[in-house]
Amino acid sequence: MPPLFYDIAGFYNAAYAHAFLERQDRLIARFEWLKQHLNAVPYFTGVDFSMVDASFGPVFRYFNIFKASCGLDLLSRFPNVRAWRHALSGCTFVAEAVDSEYPDRLAAFLVNRNSQISAMFDR
Length: 123
Hints:
With about 120 residues, the chain is mainly alpha-helical. Helix content is about 65%, strand content about 0%. Helix 1 (about 5-15) runs antiparallel to helix 2.
């Protein structure tokens, strides 16, 4: 499992506040690194959709739910990453990979983690 995916899972599974904040800091550090390496638009390497984009499309779904349901906008300080996330959400490959009920199922999955983030969800 790549480190970013590991940190996302650690973040939404963190049962205690200190672990939650530690994982949040790790995620922010990872996106800080990514911000330094992401210069192309609309996709990671420019105009062509790549495997990096295919990998991050699903990752950004988590961040959409964190923001919409918990008010956590972990990408707020990274405008180029947010622009990339927006471009990917409008990409046919990414949008059609899941059905319209996916955001609700993902939110339910996160609520049922019995973690710090679970308690933050609007119920």
